[in-house]
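Hi support team,

I'm filing this because I wasn't sure whether my run with glycine finished correctly. The job status page said complete, but I'd like someone to confirm that the output block is well-formed before I use it downstream. Pasting the exact inputs I used:
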Amino acid sequence: MKKIAVLISNIGTGTNLQAIIDGVKSGQITASIVAVISDTPDAKGLERAKKYKLPIEVVSKKENLLPLLKKLDPDYVCLAGWKQIILDSVIDAFPNRILNTHPGLIPDSMDGVVKNPDETEALWNKGKMTDKAVRNFLETKATYAGCTNHFLSLEFDFGPVLGRCFEKIKKGDTIESLYKRLKVKENKLYVDVLAKLVLSKTVMVIDGGGRGAALVDKYAQSKKVSRILVVPGNDLMQVNTKKPVITYQNLKTTSIPEILKICQKEKVDLVDVAQDNAVEAGLVDRLAEIGINVFGPTRKAGQIEWDKAWARKFMVKYQIPTPKFHAFNSTKEGIDFVKKYPDSKWFVKASGLAEGKGAIPASTINEAITAIEQMQKFGKSGETYLLEEWLIGEEFSAFALSDGKEFKMVGFAQDHKRVNDGDQGENTGGMGCVSNPLIIDKNIRKQTENIFIKVIDGLKEEGRPYKGVLYLGGIVVEGKVFIIEFNARWGDPEAEAVLPSIQNNLFDLANTINLGGLKKLKIRIDKKVRVVIAATAKGYPVDYKSVRGKKVLGIDKVKETGVKIYGSGIKKVDSGYTVNGGRVLYIVGEGKNVIEARERAYKAMRLISIEGNNLHYRTDIGWRDLERIKR
Ligand code: AMP
Ligand code: GLY
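And here is everything the job wrote out:
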């Protein structure tokens, strides 16, 4: 049960305190009042508190409030007539957790305005309290009075708005008559806001890129989720929602002690670990150890991604179709080996995580030797490496949710890894993708499903039940699916295409899976096709240093079109946004088919530019499906 502390004083009559007490007693507010705190012992409200046997604290000096609140550790602090100054250190220690009621209409932004129900401009009443505020409504001949419930922020009489109410001013109203009616509404608003708030949830997403942004967007759509924390996140995470999104960009996804501390301090209700390094570092395990609800695979289950040599052996053991492979631990062993097969073509792969750069194609023996020599530059990740038979075929990605026992497939996509049109140029982290690709027919779907059965059962058998999202990277060779890789997470940019198709509340979905209830769960997926295009800095992935810091233009225009935009290597500055990484942002177009989805995505992409003509994107995302349609 959530805990609340109510702060009062000897001004006012304590009606808000009474309303909160009544709300708790009646069960409308599912929380307990851990203290009624007053700045003087003669506050009227203390008598009410005594009557209901609520714990009482008197804090006569403002400096003493923070230590007391830290000791009580309430989820929410409700100001109900408190008149002492709240020090900035208290607001800093309880961000978005101190509620206040203000007798005026606070806008959403400093330069915003609130409209009354009759469309006239409402009064903010900044700096005015109690009857002075009411007098102002009357003296300015306002048509409505009103009040706002909001979180306290460092800005005076401002902060995230939780609710507003309006009261029509009647002919002949006096301060007393108007105040009386407004009070009733104010009390009700406080209770309604608190009732909702104590049920509302905080989610933390572990990722910094477009995939994280898509997760934030999806979690924010849940009515139960009131705010989202992202480690590290980026400056465009807020773009798709009004709910507060708080990023921790000074942290890494592997900053485990710091992440644990934030989860405890912010009372996080669910952590979604969506990034590979964090899985390898054991973030899921460590969160679970301290009792935090976490969605994602343990380090042992995630070995299927972070140890490719182990993963290949696992696939052989459980008869999952894999290209032929050989694992080596020294440069010499590998070179001696390839010399025995001078006509073979290989994929040389670091066994560990390498930010998607660990697989090098080698079509000649010399290329193979060079690639093997390069494995050292991946450090520990390249100490063991694989030589894999180079399969020629068409690739796809498939995604399943699993609770360790059961799994459900949630979508397919097709990534475009090369930097230029026509699949030319360097390999990248992904230049775009299309969901529901046409390569997925009944036969491929069935084979994919059978592979998921084997991998989920196999991991269970090995004592590493897989909980979370499993990514199957497949390649179709003459009608047969082989595994390129498994990843212990959503793909990026595939997440940006597949997540929006899920119609369930993601917060509920993750919790049901965590409780082992996937079997009975009906996952609803829409039938739309989505096309994701990456907007990158010119020169990516080789050298784009000179583009860093250049302005990114057109984001607001895209927002106006309603097309989704997910940020990645992007930073907010005073005048707008600037480039802060190779893959800057993603645009997601949707439609009934690939033609419609592409049209929407490219139309929106044409609104984006990077200062100095430094924007690059592929113009042929989805080309395979377009060709299939033409045929
Ligand atoms: P990975 O680092 O395993 O994600 O591999 C990156 C990309 O290299 C894949 O998406 C494939 O396009 C390609 N690739 C990796 N392994 C093979 C293989 N054995 N045969 C053909 N292509 C491969
Ligand atoms: N889209 C490729 C990956 O996420 O690894």
